[in-house]
UniProtKB/TrEMBL annotation:
It holds the Pfam family 7tm_1. This is 5-hydroxytryptamine receptor 4. Its main location: membrane. Signal peptide: none annotated. Keywords: Cell membrane, Disulfide bond, Endosome, G-protein coupled receptor, Glycoprotein, Membrane, Receptor, Transducer, Transmembrane, Transmembrane helix. Residues 48-313 form the G-protein coupled receptors family 1 profile domain. It comes from the Eukaryota.
Length: 357
């Protein structure tokens, strides 16, 4: 993605000249530095999301409706790191596309599909947390296995429909008359596709998440007042069944902590994806004048969101953190390791429990 006015002026340049330009546009030192930096990010994306998938698949304690969305999200982010980011890296560093026009369309389709699927899963997680915190009495009914499975199917089906269909049929570039060199892979879209795809892939999920987290925030604030009142009652010795109240208080606190964690994930999501989708809508209306470096920076900011999600889970969620440590230490490979062990225990408790089995 580069300044199309410059490409248009140079559209008559031969393929050999274009190849030479794109391979010498950066110094060897800057290219190596970029490769090292981006490859490190790709490895973090792949390994981090793989840890999430393995943790949820292995430990029964992590197998919940919310974590079904988290696992499917991790699969989408894992595929972003595995099949999208490496080719985007070469395009960004070298300034040209070496893999042919057919794979260019396939790569663009996968890019749109997987990034959109990642965004859809985040909105489903927000929807799930809304019912868990704000309507706990109907949560089990609303988030049954069938409902969760249906939502996950939607999270994959809709991105597939807005990516592979229009892109492979060329509908996204109808009416666009901008000549490009043969060795450039640019996701150039018309105004209709830019607006519609951005609305479906980003802005509608964004509104869903903002509404859900606003309602969660208000519910958490109300529950905090209940906790304060309950603690005051317990401190005065008025409560007759303090154990039940303590259990209820801890349950509410866990839900609030989960909501806070997902709120941070939401903030990170907006920070890294909002610039790209804003420019994505504006660019067709300014005759594709956005500079290539701006596209690259905003696109890679979006990719970073796929890298950060598993680390946010590991940092804020104790159970995930325990599971990650056990997987990285190959503890799940040992005889006697239990899928149902309590990941909320301390590391010493986990070790003693494993040794005694």
């Amino acid at each position: 993605m580069a300044n199309f006015s410059e490409w248009k002026e140079e559209s008559n340049t031969s393929l050999d000249t274009d190849f030479e330009l794109c391979t010498t546009s950066r110094s060897p030192v800057s290219r190596v530095s970029l490769y090292v930096f981006i490859i490190s990010g790709i490895i973090c994306t792949i390994v981090g999301n793989l840890l999430v998938v393995l943790a949820i698949a292995y430990f029964k304690q992590l197998q919940s409706p919310t974590n079904s969305f988290v696992m499917s999200l991790a699969v989408a982010d894992f595929l972003v790191g595995l099949v999208v980011m490496p080719y985007s890296m070469v395009r960004t560093v070298e300034g040209c596309w070496w893999f042919g026009p057919t794979f260019c369309h396939l790569h663009s389709s996968l890019d749109v599909m997987l990034c959109t699927a990642s965004i859809f899963h985040l909105s489903c997680i927000a929807f799930d947390r809304y019912y868990a915190v704000c309507n706990p009495l109907v949560y089990t009914f609303k988030m049954s296995r069938k409902s969760v499975a249906l939502l996950i199917v939607v999270c994959w089906a809709v991105p597939f429909l807005i990516s592979f269909g229009p892109i492979l049929l060329g509908l996204h570039e109808l009416g666009v008359e901008v000549p490009l060199p043969e060795n450039v892979c640019v996701f150039l879209v018309n105004r209709i596709y830019a607006v519609m795809a951005s609305l479906v892939a980003f802005y509608l999920p964004m509104v869903t998440m903002l509404v859900a987290y606003w309602k969660i925030y208000k519910a958490a604030k109300r529950q905090a007042m209940q906790i304060n009142a309950m603690e005051a009652q317990m401190a005065a010795g008025v409560g007759k069944d303090s154990s039940k109240k303590l259990k209820h208080r801890n349950s509410i606190r866990r839900e609030r902590k989960a909501a806070k964690t997902l709120g941070i994930i939401m903030g990170v999501f907006l920070l890294f994806w909002l610039p790209f989708f804003t420019v994505n809508i504006i660019d067709p209306f300014i005759e594709y004048g956005t500079a290539g470096v701006v596209w690259d920076v905003f696109l890679w900011l979006g990719y970073v969101n796929s890298s950060l999600n598993p680390f946010l889970y590991g940092f804020f969620n104790r159970s995930f953190r325990r599971a990650f440590l056990m997987i990285m230490g190959c503890r799940i490979c040992l005889r006697g390791s239990a899928q149902g062990m309590d990941l909320s225990h301390s590391k010493r408790d986990v070790n003693e429990r494993t040794e005694n089995q």
